[in-house]
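Recall the central idea of this unit: under ordinary conditions, the amino acid sequence of a chain determines the structure it adopts. In this exercise we apply that idea directly, starting from the sequence alone.
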Amino acid sequence: MSKERARRREVREHAAAAQADVRAAQQARAARRSRRGVALRRLVAPLLPGSRPGQQTGVLAQRRRTRMNLIVASLLFAQVVIWIVRPDWQARLAGVVIAAIAFPVIAAFAF
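Accordingly, the structure predicted from this sequence is:
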């Protein structure tokens, strides 16, 4: 009877050791996955809306950002047209100054 108990105990210990090895491997994989996830989140987070401190994420904030982007794009387009059409530097410089002055005015009227 004693030999039988010793054999059963040996089988249980062997199974427990195998299960501990499997658990250790799973924990190692989870730790690697977690480190990868943290690194990926650190890379992607700045690109997502609302990830920067103080940035609003609502519908109105999205509309405001869209309007602001359209205003900036249109002023940049106007600058490109001025630089293509007018070869003299005075006109180009005047276009930049006028755009810099007009931007806050247009932004105020857009909202």
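The chain has two domains: 1-48, 55-111.
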